[in-house]
Write a structure and sequence with these properties.
GO molecular function: DNA binding; transposase activity
Number of helices: 10
Radius of gyration: 18 Å
Number of domains: 1
Protein name: Transposase IS4-like domain-containing protein
Domain Transposase IS4-like: 92-143
Distance between the termini: 17 Å
Largest sheet: none
Pfam families: DDE_Tnp_1
Helix content: 55-70%
Order of helices and strands: HHHHHHHHHH
Strand content: under 5%
Structural class: mainly alpha
Oligomer: single chain
């Protein structure tokens, strides 16, 4: 099981727990879809509306044969309604404070974070929506860091054989944080569904 399969399993388990916390009945829009939408919306341009981003998600998932809750894209108003109903307090503020302070030694992470996060570019204009987008931002940055570590520090070649030759390891292409961010954003649906293997070469 590679790092992305483990991430996928953790993500699905976490989303399932949160679904039980806020959903009174089974809905078309679940936590997984909301989180994917939030990460897409904070990584795009503010002039892209909800409908544009939802259609982009549907196109990506159909192309990659990733299951969707329904054939046609959900409406923008349905996503707005789901965000309002989405439980805000499953993770306490203290959890994010603790996580933030544990990462102080990784200065590059915060440099990357500050370079892509512009307060005036938030789509939401209320406290709950801004907090959702901030949390999606934190998740996106951490997925980027995990990907960077995976690509730049793995000791195996594409066939799974251990690389012991220093020269061979040095020839492995290094990815910058920004390039890893672009990779994560481009393949978010595949990453979340654990179907990233064919894009890792």
């Amino acid at each position: 099981m590679n790092i992305y399969q483990r991430l996928n399993k953790t993500f699905f388990n976490s989303c399932s727990r949160i679904d039980k916390y806020w959903q009174k009945r089974k809905r078309t829009i679940d936590t997984k879809l909301i989180v994917l939408f939030l990460m897409k919306i904070i990584s795009g341009k503010n002039n892209h509306g909800y409908a544009y981003i939802i259609n982009e998600i549907w196109d990506d998932c159909i192309r990659e044969e990733i299951p969707l809750p329904q054939y046609n894209p959900i409406s923008a108003s349905s996503m707005c309604e789901a965000r309002i109903k989405f439980e805000q307090d499953y993770y306490k503020i203290k959890d994010f404070n603790d996580l933030y302070h544990q990462r102080w030694e990784i200065e590059e992470l915060y440099k990357l974070s500050k370079s892509i996060l512009c307060i005036e570019d938030f789509h939401s204009h209320n406290e709950k929506g801004v907090k959702q987008e901030l949390r999606a931002h934190i998740l996106l940055i951490n997925l980027t860091r995990i990907s960077e570590n995976y690509f730049n520090h793995r000791n195996y070649d594409d066939e799974g054989s251990r690389i012991n030759n220093k020269e061979s390891r040095d020839k492995k292409q290094k990815l910058s944080s920004k390039n890893c961010l672009f990779f994560v954003v481009k393949y978010l649906p595949q990453l979340i569904q654990g179907k990233l293997k064919k894009h890792l070469k």
